[in-house]
Amino acid sequence: MLDYEKEAGRYDALRGGEARAAAAAEAVLGLIPGGRGRLLDVACGTGIVTRWFAAVRPESRVTGVDATPAMVRRAAARLPGAIVRADGRRLPFRAGTFDAVVTVWLLHLLHDPEDVRAVVAECARVLRPGGMYVTTVDKAAAHDVGSDIDAVLAARPRRPAADAPGAVTAHAVRHGFRPAGRTAFRGAGQGRSPRSTIADLRRGWFTLLPPGEPRTEEFAARLAGLPDQDRPRPDPRFGLLAFRKASADERPGHFRVSDGD
Description:
single chain; about 260 residues; Rossmann fold; 7-stranded mixed β-sheet; about 35% helix; about 20% strand; globular
């Protein structure tokens, strides 16, 4: 796994910057109809998406949490007073505090299914009955866009996807959620080029191909043989799932969303 303490300074520039953050925030909020309330962004990273949540929904009170000190510092600079350092498996909030909880690009990092379960359970705990939980799913698969780069990387070792839609839905249902919608958004500025993919290989982006190992360098050499070394291939398209926390007496018009796409 990447060292996010070291990664914080260049995180946004390497991942589509404001364009990707705006696309992510728009898609997430499209699953959480407007209204006053509290929104929690778990594993908010540098706060670049969190700030878009706050800008698009000024009537909502937005809070971000992240476990990495360097990420927290950057996020706090963007949203002073709204960022808390915390582990997503042990959130420092009372039950039922939030009207919406979001995990964007988090679950795929949790290789232990128990950690995924723990995060979903905590999101359910701090969410009020009738509230919305929205999460990205299948992140790694989103980067496979059918390019020549993907053909080279097809033989690489892979972990089972911790954020597979079926697994996430099973965890969610187990903790009192009901499916409540889905959508997808384009990861603007994230199309891979052969040269950028080689750099990702050598900095540990592909977790089962450690930097410096012979097999990693074999893939790097094959990528170096592709044409158009600096031409980005198509951008990934990230999936989102929305869930509603079960409630016997939901209040009409307050963060409601209809089932469906």
